[in-house]
Model the fold of this input.
Amino acid sequence: MTGQEEDKRRSTPPKLPPALEAAPRLEPPVPTEPEVAPSHAARFGKEHSDFAAFHEGYIRHYIALADTKAGVIFTLAAGIIGYLINDDEIQATIVAPSCSSAFFVLILALLSLGLVAALAFFVIAPRLSAPSNEGLVFFGAVAKKASSEDFVTEITASPDERLTEARLKHCYDTATVCFRKYELLKVAIWLTPISLLLALVSTLLN
Done:
């Protein structure tokens, strides 16, 4: 065998069995650049800032409305409770309880009025935290800054898009607070007429 034939034999790859020749071949992966998720802030414009301003006023209005209604309900319930427990005949019924309809109606009236007052109080009670508990808007997060200079520096270094994003996130936080207020207020409103009816019946029975 000559040297050329020997070199040709070595350069020729060995033949594979037909079953391996027909098998699918795996191509090496093509390297790609990592994808960077687009920031929401990059898509904020003036219309989003205007919407944030509208939504802030919208939520503020409904929170104030809920607090006003809850204040009226709390005053009403507390006033009737005060009237009942200061009535001489009702005081006598409380001091000397008996298995009578007058006693049971009185207890139901006081309990329901107390529950109404408690629900109204929790509607008005301030929420000192937000779901996100961070950001540039929530006063609790701002108060946790090291100093006022740090807060001012962070605000001045933030573009308009980031400020709009922070306002919209805070809109979500205040919306959850508003939702919880109206959940409690709804129960208090429906329970109020029942409590008033029980208080009226208790007054008539005593």
The helical segments are 3-11, 18-21, 46-86, 88-95, 101-124, 139-143, 148-157, 160-205. The first helix runs from residue 3 to 11.
